[in-house]
Amino acid sequence: MKKMWLIGLNTFRESMRKKTLYIILIFALIVIGASKLFSFLTAEEELKMIKDVSFSAIEFFGALMAIFGSLYAISTEIERRTIYTLLTKPIRRSDFVLGKFFGVSMIVLINFILMTVFFIGLLFFKKSPPDLQVFKTLLLIFFELILISGITLALGTFTSDAFNIICSFFLYIVGHLTSYGKELVERTENIIVRGLTDMLYTLVPNYENFNIRDKIVVGLNVSWGYVGWTILYGILYLCIALYIALYFFEKREI
Amino acid sequence: MAIIETKNLTKHYILGKRKVVVGLEKVNLEVNEGEIFGILGPNGSGKTTCLKLLLGILFPTAGEAYIMGKPPHDVDMKKHVGFLPENPYYYDYLTGPELLQFYASLFSLEAQTAKKRIDQLLELVDLHNAKRLHLKHYSKGMLERIGLAASLINDPEILILDEPTTGLDPIGCRDTRNLLLQLKQQGKTILLSSHFLSEVERVCDRIAIFHRGYLLALGTLDGLNSQYQATNLEDLFVKTISSFDNQEAAKTGDVT
Ligand SMILES: Nc1ncnc2c1ncn2[C@@H]1O[C@H](COP(=O)(O)OP(=O)(O)O)[C@@H](O)[C@H]1O
Ligand SMILES: [Mg+2]
User: Fold this and answer.
1) How does strand B81-84 pair with strand B158-162?
2) How many structural domains compose chain B?
3) What range defines the domain where residue B105 resides?
4) Partners of residue B103 in chain A, C-beta under 8 Å
5) Once rounded to an integer, what is the mean pLDDT over residues B143-167?
6) Quick count: other Cβ atoms within 10 Å of Cβ B155?
7) Would you tell me the crossing angle of helices A93-125 and A20-34 to the nearest 10 degrees?
8) Are residues B228 and B189 in the same domain?
9) CATH at B172
10) To the nearest whole angstrom, how far is the Cα of B126 from the nearest Cα of chain A?
11) Among A70, A174, A214, B172, which one is least packed by beta carbons within 10 Å?
12) Mean pLDDT for the stretch of residues A197-208
C-alpha cells in the first residue's frame, strides 16, 4: 500500500518537472479565457457561453491529459527500462500498476483544479458566483477523467502505444455517442445489428452519463441522486478496468 | 548450498506462429555464497535473458530459478538483492540523491539510515559533486555509476550486475573491479555478465561461458584453461565457442 503511494508520487513528480502536460493546460486556459470575448452577447448569454465553453474545455483537455498521462506512465518506464530496476525492488507488480494509476490521477486532479479555479474566478469576475449545479457538473467531469485514465492504463498493459491511443480516443468518442447510437439502433429491424450494438452499448464506457453540462447551462437542475449513481457507475467501471490492468500486467514480460 | 540456482532454465521467445528464438536452453547454474561469478558470452548469447529470468522480469518456458531458495516472484527475497540492468537509464528529471532516495523508500529504509547510505554511496561512486544535476544531463559512465550506487542502496547480500563495465572508461573499469573485490570481502555474492573480456572478468572466482543460449563451460578460470588447453581467457572463449559452432555445423551437415 505504501509502496504504491511512493510509485505514484514519483510518477507525479516526474511529470510535473517534465512540463509537457502544461502545454495542454495553457491551451485549456486560453480557451476558457477566450469564452468571455463574446462581448456582443447579452450578459446572460455571455454567462451561458462562458459556462458552456469552460465545461467543454475542462472536459476535453482533461481527457487529453488523462489519456496521454496514462499512456506515458507505463510505456516510458518500459521504453526507458527504468522498470527493470523498479520491478526488482521488493514491490509487487500490482503496486506498480496501482501506483501508476494514483500518479496519473494526481496529475489529472492538479490540472483539473487549476482549470476549475480559473473558470470559477471568471464566474466571480462576471459577478455570478457558481451554484451547486456548477459543482455537480465539475464533479462528474472529474470522475469521467479518472475513468478515462483507468481505461487507458488498462489498455496500456496489453497493447502498443499506437493502438492504445486509437482505442482510447475511439472509446472517448463512442462513449459520448452512446445515447444517439441507442436511439438509432432502436429503429433498425436487423436483429444482428441490434444485438451487436446492444453489446457494444453495454461494453463501451458510457461517458455521456457524466455529461450534464447541456442541462446545467440552460438552467435545468440535476438531482444528487443522478450524480451519485453516475459516480457509482464510474467507480464500478474503473474497478473492472483496473482489474484488467492488474491481470495483464501480472503476466507481462518486459 | 548454492545461493543462486537455475535448473534446466529455458527461455524461448515466441515471435510468430513458427518463429521461435532460443534465449536460453536448459541452463544449470549454481552460484555459491560469497563468490564472484561471471557469465561471459558474445552478444545475444542469453546473459541478459538468464538474469531477467532469475529476477522475475521474464518468465521461463521451462525449468526453475531460485535466489536464496526463493522463486523469482518472491517479494521478500528482493530485499536482499541489488540489480544493475544493462545500459541503465533512470528518471530524467530526478537528481542522483533523489533517485537513491526513491529506491531507498521502496526498501522501507529509515530516513536516517537512508540519508547516511546515500551520502556514502555518492562518495563511493564519485558522484557527490553532481548532487544537483538532473540525470538527464548525466554521461553514460555517470549513469552506470549512479546505477551501481542504486543497486547497493539496500546493502544487498546478492548483487546482480548486467554488463557493469560497458559504458565505463579504463579508470571506471578499474574502480568497479576494486569495488567488486571490496564487496566480496564484505561477504557479498556477486553475479555479473559481460561480453567483453576486461580485467573485471578476471576478478571472477568462477565463470560460465554462454553461447546461443547454451551453457558451454563452467568452472574456475584455471580449471577451464587446462581443460580446454587455453592460454588465457580470450583463448578459452574463442576455443569453446568455435568448437560448439563446429559441432552444430556438423549436426546440420554443413561443411566448415
Ligand atoms: N524480447 C525479446 N524478444 C525476442 N527475442 C529476444 C528478446 N530478448 C532477447 N532476445 C533474443 O534472445 C537471445 C539472447 O538475448 P540476450 O539474453 O539479450 O543476450 P545477451 O544479453 O547475452 O546479449 C538473442 O538472440 C536475442 O535476440
Ligand atoms: Mg545483454
Assistant:
1) parallel
2) 2
3) 88-155
4) 85, 89
5) 92
6) 15
7) 30
8) yes
9) 3.40.50.300
10) 21
11) A214
12) 83
B14 in any annotated domain? no
Tell me, using a 6 A CB cutoff, whether residue B49 lines ligand 1.
yes
**Domain endpoint, select from B134, B155, B176:** B155
In this prediction the ipTM stands at 0.89
The predicted-structure confidence for B33-64, as pLDDT tens digits, reads as follows 999 999 999 999 999 999 999 999 999 999 99
Cell for B186? 564484505
What is the reported pLDDT for A178? 76
Does B53 fall in a domain? Answer: yes
- Shared domain check, B161 and B255: yes
Strand order in the sheet with B206-211: B81-84, B158-162, B189-194, B36-40, B206-211, B214-219
Give the C-alpha separation, B252 to B126, whole Å: 52
Residue B231 belongs to some domain of the structure: yes
Per CB-CB distance under 8 Å, the chain B contacts of A87 are 55-57
Determine the distance separating the centroid of ligand 1 and the alpha carbon of B25, expressed in angstroms. 12
Q: Choose one of B107, B124, B155: the last residue of a domain.
A: B155
Ligand 1 nearest atom to the CA of residue B24, by list position: 14
B208 and B253 within one domain: yes
A22-65 pLDDT per residue, tens:
888 888 888 888 876 766 778 888 888 888 889 999 999 999 99
Note the pLDDT tens digit of each residue in A79-106: 888 999 999 999 999 999 999 999 999 9
